[in-house]
Amino acid sequence: MARDSSTISQADLASAYARWAPVYDLFFTATMRPGRKAAAAAINALANGGQPIQVLDVGVGTGLELPMFEPHVQITGIDLSEPMLDLARKRVARAGLANVKALRAMDAMALDFQDAHFDAVIAPFVLTVVPDAHRTLDEMARVVKPGGEIVLVNHIGAESGAMATLERWLSHRAAALGWRPEFSWSIVADWLARHPGITLVERRKLPPLDLFTLIRLRRENGATSA
What is the number of domains present in the chain? Predict the structure, then answer.
C-alpha cells in the first residue's frame, strides 16, 4: 500500500507560510487561479436553487478563492498560518464578502468541528503540503454531511518517466514552501480503497498545462466518517 511519506512538520509548514505570506499572491495567483475557479464552481453548483449551504474551506490561505463563491455559499475558512489568515481577513473586508462567516487558525489534521457539520468541504492545493494526507482526508470526510462533497485541487505527480525524475529532484528543493511535487495519486487511491462510503465523482486535469487535477469525492448517504 502506498503511503504518504512526507517529513514536513507542522512547525516547518507554519514557518514556511509565514515567510511566504507577504508575497504569496504575487507568485501564485495566476498559476493557481484556474484550479481555484474550477473548485469554487463545483461548490457553487451544489446548492439546489440557490439554497444556502455551509462549506468548510481547508487551507484558505490569503483567501484567493473567497470572491469566487456565490452569496448562498456560507464559508468557514481555516488555515495553519495566522499571517495568511490576516491577509484573508483584509480581503474579506475590502470586498465586503458577507458570506464568509469565519476565518480561524486550525490544523487540517485535527478539525475543531462536530461530525457531519458541513454540506461540503473545499481544499485547494492542500494535500501536497500537509504532513499526513490520509489524516487530512479522514478529517474532511468526518465533518462533511452524508451526501456532501469534498472538492480538492492538487498537483498529482507523474508515475514514471522524465517528469517523475524531475519532480523527485524538485521535491528536495520545495521544502521552503512545504510542497511535494512528486505527490502520487496512489495516496488518494489507497485512502479511497479504505473508505468504501466515499465515492470518486470526478477527476480531471486543469490548466495551465494539465499541471493540476480537480478531484470531487462524495460521502454517500449512510456512510460512516471513519
Answer: 1
